[in-house]
Design goal:
single chain; mainly alpha; 8% strand; two-stranded parallel sheet
Length: 154
């Protein structure tokens, strides 16, 4: 016999989906304590987690022998979660960016080297404020004079 979801079952299933979504994102490394992914990298992780969670939810419904639910429901769930998660991450990024521009939560960095790679590294590190890194100086050999890298040289 076919079973339909009642309100209590929908609530249970919704809580199960929320918990499994958090676990999926954690397993995919979205909550790891690193600096930041690029925006496209973050979208890829979120989409991968959503697909896994939707497949998990459909398998749970099949295991519970609940066949009468709208087939549009997983797509609506995925679209809504995608919009809400990306909007939340965007707001969080803006909050972090404002804090970093105000000088909060910055990590100091010393670059070892004096060549073009050191210059490029400093430009990249300081151009993306989300990294939260501030270049303090460069470690160079004593005999390197006439360098194009800025002060201070350590």
């Amino acid at each position: 016999k076919y079973k339909q979801l009642d309100q209590v079952s929908y609530l249970f299933f919704g809580v199960l989906l929320a918990i499994s979504q958090v676990i999926t994102f954690w397993l995919l490394g979205l909550y790891s304590p690193r600096r930041f992914l690029s925006f496209l990298g973050e979208i890829g992780v979120v989409l991968g987690g959503l697909v896994l969670n939707i497949l998990f939810s459909i398998s749970i419904l099949y295991f519970m022998r609940i066949y009468e639910f709208s087939r549009v429901l997983p797509m609506l769930y995925g679209a809504a979660i995608l919009v809400f998660i990306l909007a939340g991450h965007n707001l969080f990024r803006r909050f972090i960016l404002r804090r970093r521009e105000a000088g909060h939560d910055l990590k100091d960095v010393i670059i070892i080297g004096s060549g073009s790679i050191a210059e490029r590294t400093a430009r990249v590190v300081e151009s993306d404020k989300l990294f939260g890194l501030r270049v303090l100086g460069y470690v160079v050999e004593q005999k390197d004079e006439g360098l194009s890298i800025p002060e201070p040289r350590l």
